């Protein structure tokens, strides 16, 4: 890179009449070019036509020691050559012109307004030679003492001679994916924290799209983020109204949280993903009423396997778009070998779906150009130059540009910066051959990659099973959902706590959560529901006395919660029978309530009775069981009756026995008298 630039400066030195050694020193603070603010993408094929660049500069000496060097290079004819130039490996120098920094006009914002006339034929000192038609790399540098201390490289297309506007040669469809997203806003305690910087980026993106004159775009708008903005209240109403008013925008069908279908399928949680998708679509339709949400194209931001693509197909998606990250994580990156302007076919047991591939190289440019501190406008010019050269490559190979689409996303599908999107779309609007389309339209109008053997297919592998120490999300979801449903039955209808618990449930599948962070959300709901159970106080211990066979037990409970609570009371004992215990009772808020429970004694004595409270559905215990003592005298009257009968029987036996004994003795006396000797005379 330095080799070419120094050659250009040497040429400039010869032009201005000096190439001797320097006697001046560089300034203590080296001046720098800030960012490229604006430029002409084309220059007419007419002598002395102007190219205009607007550039910011810092610490630029205005004492005549600094110059601005503008250098043209031979046109680039391939995408590879474009990228080499972007990275500093520039083609041969064509010409350089030098302008004293002090003589360059500044616009109203203080930026350098550099206007460079070109020449096509005879060389002159004042004009920049651009004799060849095509996309030229052009460098703009600060020169002090014949040294380039800073420079940027952009691209300008020189049009054919006597042509002042680009002509249509072959249409290339481009699908740009942006979005409205932010970090997970719901916190474990149920509060909503909207990241201020992410909200600012969302506002900037909305403004950028509004200014793009109804350019067709595809938006990945995370429903959890949109819902968080809605919960801000009045301060967000204008923002949602503006989103709803966006024109020519396709809103993708996406899960409520950033749920990874591949991860959920592996964890046997396909139902969780379906619920996420439904919830996400409902939120977008509710908060953005004008949005048309269809399950045509799924944007994959991470790798896919046979299971996840089968799930997407079964849910109604007809195609997928793989971001570069998804391409790298799917089938070991095999899709990188395919032409990204055509569709490939993803195959799996039982079917297949078409897939479009985001261009990995263009995605890198968009990602890098959207970073904080990046020169977004310059990066947009690099991407725009590569699109034009891609078109030229296709035409040079006598290939038809129809049936092709260039999909541009960031590496993982995150939104680009609003500044980059604005610069790119406004630059592309100058090119009649580049037509913006939505993702759905792109997939429908793009032809498949084919070889002599037929369409290019990519067989998807089965995803690896989770490790033995991982807890499947399906289990976490099912257990927490069951607990929430049970405790919801305790509270009055419409209680806000239930809504908060269910919102926590909705964000658990978010792929940004670590296991530890996910556990914080689960623990928060557990703590809330446990506190709800703990607001009911039972007597520590007591003794019930049952005076009859059929009686009742009076249980006294206090509800210290601010809401009425419905509970189910269960008693158990080996010596007592209780009636139906399926009915729940309501404990009014802040009061003590006595509840009578019918009971039937089975025997006398003292024995334990276990009492425990449950949620109304009986699924969740509300605290530990409490043991009471029951004293039963229910059988005393029966005992007296039995004793009386026994005594009566005993008396009857003795009466009968005495009478029989008397008769026996009387008979004995009579027999003795008949045997007396006197009776024989």
Uncertain parts:
1-23
SS summary, helix count? 17
Query: What's the CATH architecture name of the largest domain?
Result: Alpha-Beta Barrel
What would you report as the Rg, rounded to the nearest angstrom?
44 Å
Strand tally is 31
Integer tally of domains: 4
CATH domain class name of the largest domain:
Alpha Beta
Kindly identify the CATH topology of the largest domain.
Answer: 7-stranded beta/alpha barrel
**Structural classification:** alpha/beta
What fraction strand? Answer: 25-35%
Shape: elongated
Query: Helix proportion of residues, in percent?
Result: 25-40%
Biggest β-sheet strands, sense, barrel: 6 strands, parallel
Instruction: Give the CA-CA distance, first to last residue.
Output: 175 Å
Transmembrane segments: 634-655
Pfam families: DUF6049
InterPro entries: DUF6049
Keywords: Membrane, Transmembrane, Transmembrane helix
What does this structure look like?
It contains 17 helices and 31 strands. It is of the alpha/beta class. The strands form 7 sheets. Strands 10, 11, 12, 13, 18 and 19 form a 6-stranded parallel β-sheet that branches. A 5-stranded mixed β-sheet has the order 2-9-8-4-5. Helix 4 packs across helix 7, helix 14 runs antiparallel to helix 15 (496-507) and helix 14 (473-488) packs parallel to helix 16 (515-534). It starts with a helix and ends in a 7-residue tail after the last helix. The relative contact order is 0.09. Residues 1-23 have low confidence and may be disordered. It holds the Pfam family DUF6049. The chain crosses the membrane at residues 634-655. Keywords: Membrane, Transmembrane, Transmembrane helix. InterPro entries: DUF6049 (IPR046112).
